[in-house]
Amino acid sequence: MENGDSCVKQRTMVQAKTWTLRKHFDGFPKDSDFELLVEQLPEPKDGEVLLEAVFLSVDPYMRPYSRVRMKEGDVMIGAQVAKVIQSKNPSYPVGSHVIAKHGWRTHTISDGTGLTIVLSEWPQDVPMSLALGAIGMPGLTALYGLEEVCQIKPGETLLVNAAAGAVGSVVGQIGKIKGCKVVGCAGTDAKVSYLKDLGFDHAFNYKTVSSLKEALRAASPDGYDCYFENVGGPFSSAALPQMKQFGRIAVCGGISLYNDTTPQCGPYVHLDMIFKQLKMEGFLVGRWQHKDHESLLRLLTWMKEGKLKCREHVTAGFENMPAAFMGMLKGDNIGKAVVKV
Q: Which part of the chain is the Enoyl reductase (ER) domain (predicted)?
């Protein structure tokens, strides 16, 4: 009997693969900054579940957050869509799917803290990976940045940079849904073509224009009411003087700054802020967490109605997490970058 018990336990023991931060990034991340480890997981206790990652997210925020929220040796941070494969918690039955903030792990023992069940309304023919993208945190970021921070109105002109990325592509589409003129920029001609397919009124490749200032002016000679900022750096310096009176700027990201070893110095914003009476506000998506369920349903409805198109850049294989992350930071992706286990 004891031998039988030990065999059962042996069959149910699970090995989890994890990617850890071996060394804090110095400049742009490199392969040697990451380490792949394997750990043996115990049986779930009462109230716990065993999760198996199905899709994992790679996002720009991971780069700056790794410095302020991680120490060397920690598992890389991030969200995943995971399937419950063992459960001793009635709230999370076997076979259900959850959004889990457990980082770059293939398997996790969880007591349920921080887990979010994927929407019960989720259509069977829609990839669940979108719960990490347009119908997830990036989509919510776009929605709240426009509605809560910019308080965007029909007929206004919206500028968004990194517009072909996970957040920017949703920002532009929501802007069109809300009756705005939308100007976007991206770093390749293929991305610019994608933005035009999404319905952007004007899109340009910021790497090939002779003058960013002139390109922004040509796209909207009257200026911009709202500016959704994902990039920072020289782009921001060119955009701020072209804001309209009482313009609003939602500061979501600053990817042009994330890999600097020496902080950039640029023009100061004070005079533009004063003379144009601008509102510039940084935000984190979690501020409006109480609205997430209703907001996700709105995003899902727009997608089902064909108003919101969701493109993904999918990398296969957990072993390729660092490559997917670094590729995303280089701008290899159009739409949301995810890893399929």
A: 27-339
